[in-house]
Amino acid sequence: MIEQTPWLVLICCILATFFWRALGVAVASHIDANGPVFQWFSCVAYAMLAGLITRILLLPVGTLEQTPTFDRVVAMVSGFVVFIIFKRNVVAATVTAFMVFLALAALRQTGSL
Amino acid sequence: MTELTPESPVTEPPVQNGKAFMAGIVAGISMPFWMVLASMIGFGSMVRTAGLSLDIGIGSTVGIWGLPGQVAMLELFAIGAPLLAIVTASSMANLRFMPMSVVMMPMFNGDKRAHRWRYVIAQVMSINIWSVTMSRCPEMPLMERFPFYMGVSLACGIGGVLGTAAGFVLAGTMPLYVTLSLVFLNPAYFVFVFSSVRARNCIIAVVIGAVTGPLIHQIAPNWGVPITGLVAGTAAFFLDRMFKARPND
Domains in chain A: how many in total? Predict the structure, then answer.
């Protein structure tokens, strides 16, 4: 077992993440930004991010795991109602979802819910 | 660095680097700064709980600059996993940066400065910066995009460092419901950001990805994100082409 220093681990992780970033740059310079390959990458990027975000909200790992799914869903639905009423206002929707979630979490912690 | 002469009536007006950079900072502070701040407060307190030092926390925010990869590193380091396992898990958790940079880099095509700094651009990219760039830059003159991007990145970077430090210092003193809500904030924001995409292929990709993401995660927890991207993204790509092929679209 090799003694691990946090800095060694960190530097390796930084390089391993940079690998993906640099690979993206290299690929981007070899494809036509108006062609089908670029369109495909675009679809993959958006699908990947959308999948990651809904996974974090519906099946969280870590900190959010200790919150009920009900709270997260109710907060998001409230945000969506505001999103639709205020013509796709991202800020208003985000603030609403945050406030609803904060209220539910606070009520649960104080035992009122 | 501008090669345009202001006197020449036929050329475009000179590029206002400073103005575009400031516009980037303003766009950064309007929302992404706060999102990064909130998420990194959550991360900073995790760093403290895991028994690591603040400089490692800030180093990973600045260097890895992608929360899923940072969290993976922290969790596996805390349980004493072998180096290769930590690095692989952290890297896999941030694989999304590859298609993200493929899609974003052409935004700067034709700007020589951006080409010279392309690997720096890729290093400072995060999901928050990416989404602002993707929505704002297309309607911006080419030469203003790079300074704008750097402005947004600086604002987010400061938010990340401040958040990590604040979370580390405040760990254990904040009520739990506040910490939970701060961690909830950024993913919630992205749901609305992605609900605002306009291009049809992106809308289809977001919808299919959002539905299949949690399902695929249950089958393959470690590979869920890349598999979702490949499967849902490819499906969206072909669906979009099918719509395009229709005569009365």
Answer: 1
